[in-house]
Amino acid sequence: MMAKRMKRTLALALSLVMVLGLLPAAAFAARVEDEYDSTAQIVDAGGTRYFKKDGNGVAETTKEAGDAILEITKSVAGTQVENEFEITLQVKTTEDLTTIPGKTPDSAVVLVLDVSNSMDDCAICGKEKNETHTGHRYEARLTQAKRAAQSFIDTFATQTGAQEGDKRLVQIIAFGSDAKTYTSRWYDVNDAANGSANIRALKNIIGAGLDSGIRVGNGDGRGGTNIEGALMLTWNLLQAGQAVGGALENVDYLYTVLLTDGAPTYHVSGDDGSTRMVTGTRGGGSFTNTDDVRDVAGVASAIKGLASASKLFSVCYGQTNPNDPNSSVFNSKSFGNVKNLDCPVSGTAWEDLTIGQWLGSFSTNAYKATDDQTLFDAFEAIGSTIRLAAQAWRVEDQMGANITVGQDSVIACPSQLHGT
Fold first, then answer.
1. What is the DSSP letter of 325?
2. Which of 94, 109, 224, 242 is spaced 20 to 30 Å from 3 by Cα?
3. Which among 93, 113, 80 has a CA at the least distance from the CA of 180?
4. Crossing angle of helices 296-304/355-362, nearest 10°?
5. 0.70 surpassed by pTM
6. How much of the chain, in percent, has pLDDT values that exceed 70?
7. Model confidence over 253-282: pLDDT tens digits?
8. What CA–CA distance (Å, rounded) separates 278 from 230?
9. Which residues contact 244 (CB under 8 A, 6 or more apart)?
10. Radius of gyration (Cα) for the chain, nearest Å?
């Protein structure tokens, strides 16, 4: 528990141990003339929030069933001095803090990149490569996607709180009609001896190894979109890594980052346990049919269920009409041929479902990207989420504007564990 007398003029960041956005600053004061009980100035006395081990919040009514292990309470009380308040921040946990290591948790990322034929479409206007591009220079969606993915490798290596000895592991999958693992092993981008070389190797794989028109499979132009195959291969890779003695043994922080520019047109017939390649079966081909979407949500759920902190992020990328800000691939409706299958969004028919809604129905988060900047922003948001989760057991309390800590006013006390 921490109690402190505060004056209005600065900001305080109070650190304990688990990165979470906390409760809003409790002391918003309207000056009360000639009033020396500052209680009258308080408009919000604070409250309590609960969190799970992975950093996600839990409602008070479901805190036990929701596996809450952290309780954070913040309150403000008045004093006999105008504009001075006593603020108490209490953090309780059911975990044994003496066993928490002085390092961030090991993390692993699988980058799953769409290299279907449409990734050759212009990133600026959405037209095909051989069409006329007026007022701008043609640049493929895949070219911009590669740059964003390469930048994300740097972010994951250097901006997720990794300390010496912490693992930051990466593999890369590309998919069109089929899905293929392009990395031969898990690359540790924070390895003391080989981290820099591993980063260069991964960037080279992204830059030179991935082509649209699809070099996945036999290089025969199998450029459909097999999201089920891509996720199935991801699950195979992660599950194999978690085996005893595997690279991901005891790694709970697993992140799948899927980038695509369209709805699926291929799928997988049966199960395929390969960690190297999953072959697709033509569904709609040029459109999405029922088989192309039927099992995607189930595979996504299996990925998220591999570990307590396994997450799946989707980025839907592409502009279809630069003169219409709402004409993105994210907002496109491509599921009119899906029949006899429950729509994943309640109250919405398949023909009215957007690609963004579909991705969001099975992803931890789904991001819309229409150009170079918003694509980088999406990857940056994912990197920030990973960074917050990696800084486990740290609580940052950002006080409101114009709050100053009074001199000699901070009192630190051990917080009670295991409840009351």
1. T
2. 94
3. 113
4. 40
5. yes
6. 76
7. 999 999 999 999 999 998 889 999 999 999
8. 8
9. none
10. 25
